[in-house]
Amino acid sequence: MLDAAIKSKNVVTPQGVREAVVLLQNGRIVDVVPMNTALGCPIHDIQEKALLPGLIDPHVHINEPGRTEWEGFDTATRAALAGGLTTLVDMPLNSSPVTTSVANLALKVAAAKSQLHTNCGFWGGIVPGNTNEIEGLIAHGVLGFKAFLTHSGIDDFPNATEHDLRQAMPILARYGLPLLVHCELTTENDAWKAGDKRSYQNYLASRPKQWEDEAVALMIRLCEEYNCPTHIVHLSSASSIAPLAAAKAKGSPLTVETGQHYLFFSAEDIKDGQTQFKCAPPIREQANNEELWGALQDGIIDFVATDHSPAPPDLKQLESGDFTTAWGGIASLQLALPVLWTAAQKRGASLPDLARWLSTNPARLIGQQGRKGQIAKGFDADLLVLAPEQTFTVTAEMLHHRHNVSPYIGQELQGVIEQTFLKGQLVYDRPNFTHLHQGEIITR
């Protein structure tokens, strides 16, 4: 007996956009059938609006426990629902303690359990000296591991050295789990701090492409040597596209993401003192970012993730505009789809592209490709309803993040999330949350 069905003239399936009815039972998609199929269950007809798989963001800093005043499971997953995101994966740092041991993972899980409005998984961390924790973290369900090649911004999550990676990667290769890497090999470069601290161009020059390119080259070599699934997070340097393409063409188990902000903004548009734009690697010039778009459309970059990394307004130095001391991180979780869709529309992208970049391919990274990220028979009924032509202007008041600091405030965006379904249940009906606390912890 079916629980319900959703009918739309624009169902985004792996085969393309089609008129269809999506049949739901026990939180799963039973089938996708033609419009005129006779049914004996309630039918939710969304007419011309598009039905897409719920979004998956595998790069989110939720910061709980320990820094819940920055963000938290309640606010992050509430914002996610309003943005059509149904599965998040929390990064192992910015919380306190960091997720680098089995004991710390247990604290993270305990903090999350009663607060999840979306599904949520966890990455473990690779730091110097924690190799003996890796298999325990795997046994307790982490979806993979994250390492930094430069200072993370948090002293209790130090950067991994090549030696540390050589210890960890054979273990991850054996289990088939991905290593996610923040690719910047930094050198002493403090001269910029003596210049204009409010200058964005000064900040941009302080983190050159070369740092990123050398780090990516290192990870390509290690990936090929150990045959370890390796994922480059938030690629910003277009100079690394060609070597990544060559490595992928050889069959190396490499995947790549970029961030919405690298595709939407350009350095030329950022005024001095606008520290809400500070992130690392930095937002680069328009010509560079157009190359990122080309790589995304060609499949060299696999998907787009927000790297949602909020902080209290005082840490962003909004009043002083000091890029040297402002926290680096962009809050954007709720806006993941409309930001990307707005920019993608200018480049001829389609709704199936959007589903691939925000759902299908992220599902593969987190090992959920058999049950999430597609509208197809047997998949979880995590879905969103989108008015793709409708526009809106971002205001601070509409954001559900703990802090409404974002570079997107004031931007006109295209694509309004009308409804979000989790396990077939309507959990968000714009502007209202209809059922909260429905999220589950995702493990391998």
Question: Would you give an account of this structure?
Answer:
The protein is an alpha/beta fold and 444 residues long. It has two domains: 4-51 and 379-392 and 413-433, Roll (Urease, subunit C, domain 1); 54-365, Metal-dependent hydrolases (TIM Barrel, Alpha-Beta Barrel), CATH 3.20.20.140. 27% of the residues lie in helices and 23% in strands. It has helices at 73-82, 102-112, 134-139, 162-175, 200-206, 209-226, 241-249, 260-264, 286-298, 336-345, 351-365; strands spanning 4-13, 16-25, 28-33, 43-53, 55-60, 85-90, 119-122, 124-125, 145-148, 179-182, 230-232, 254-258, 303-304, 383-393, 412-422, 425-429, 432-433. The strands form three sheets. An eight-stranded mixed beta sheet has the order 3-2-1-4-14-15-16-17. Strands 8-9-10-11-12-13 form a six-stranded parallel beta sheet. α4 (162-175) packs across α6 (209-226). The longest helix is centred in the middle third of the chain and has 18 residues, at 209-226. The radius of gyration is 21 Å and the shape is globular. The mean pLDDT is 96.
